[in-house]
Design a protein that fits this description.
Elements lengths: L1 H6 L16 H6 L1 E5 L5 E6 L4 H15 L9 H4 L3
Antiparallel strand pairs: 1-2
Length: 81
């Protein structure tokens, strides 16, 4: 999966995750609005952002390069508790 997430996005494929592709908060944060005359907002589009998922997977993969870094992380955080 890590190899696919490293190579796939270079060819325009989406990142593979175990969660929803985009959380509602991420979609809302990347939405472009235009203010109309009657003080309402109209959605004009959603900006795509591939940098945040790339950085997330890069940080997840760093312990593969330096496994001794895992000794500095509390075991409760590693186990997801």
């Amino acid at each position: 999966m890590g190899l696919f997430n490293f190579i796939g996005p270079s060819f325009g494929l989406p990142f593979v995750t175990g969660s929803l592709p985009h959380s509602p908060q991420m979609v809302k944060a990347l939405t472009n609005y235009r203010k109309k005359d009657d003080n309402t907002f109209e959605v004009t589009g959603v900006s795509e952002n591939r940098i945040a998922p790339f950085l997330m997977y890069l940080l997840i993969g760093l312990p593969i390069l330096k496994p001794e870094w895992l000794a500095h992380i509390p075991s409760g955080a590693l186990n997801g508790v």
